[in-house]
Amino acid sequence: MTYEPVPLPDRVQLSPDASLESVRAFRDHMRRRHSVRDFSDAPVSRAVIEACIETAGSAPSGANQQPWHFVAIGDPAMKARIREAAEEEERAFYAGGGGDAWLAALEPVGTGPEKPHLTIAPWLIVVFAQRYGVRDGERHKHYYVPESVGIACGLLIAAIHHAGLVTLTHTPNPMKFLNELCERPENEKPVMILPVGLPADEAHVPAIAKVKKPLDEILSVF
């Protein structure tokens, strides 16, 4: 393919005052986002999940190669298999495989090897990173894959929150079992499982999760 410029198709420019009002409203909305482990089993429509993934698919990527694939799983049996495999890895991690420092860092978060959210949440979204592409049987290099997939995951999480749903970033390691289970090729690496749904009536979050670094710790201005 060759470079072909087209006029900017969309403009979302705002006045300075409207821009500040809009971004502050979005900031406040995103501050209400929480990583939730207590899910309701209430159903969520496939159309909502698809719209969230379409949002993720609009993310910028290195050379516009879009090196990602998303697998949405609502099948209870498949979710149960993922939970079984993930908890096997988690038991080894919490038995000492994670190391003392990592386990100590997780104590205020209150996590453990049991992952009931993987079967209770109505949907699981498994994110795969395409380490390289395959076109017409030929292998071709992808660029900035971790950065590109990370940006897409950020948009996906924002979209899930915008839909009035909750999620949790779950990263069992290793996750190679997901390739076979989700019928994905060897050039794709599973990087994250996102359970998606509504919070349970009795949902809780760890107090430490509400402690965020202030602006002066995360921003430098020159």
From TrEMBL:
Stored SUPFAM superfamilies: FMN-dependent nitroreductase-like (SSF55469)
Keyword Oxidoreductase: yes
UniProt protein name: Nitroreductase
Domain Nitroreductase: 31-197
GO terms for MF: oxidoreductase activity
Keywords per UniProt: Flavoprotein, FMN, Oxidoreductase
InterPro entries: Nitroreductase (IPR029479), Nitroreductase-like (IPR000415), Nitroreductase/BluB (IPR050627)
Pfam families: Nitroreductase
Nuclease as UniProt keyword: no
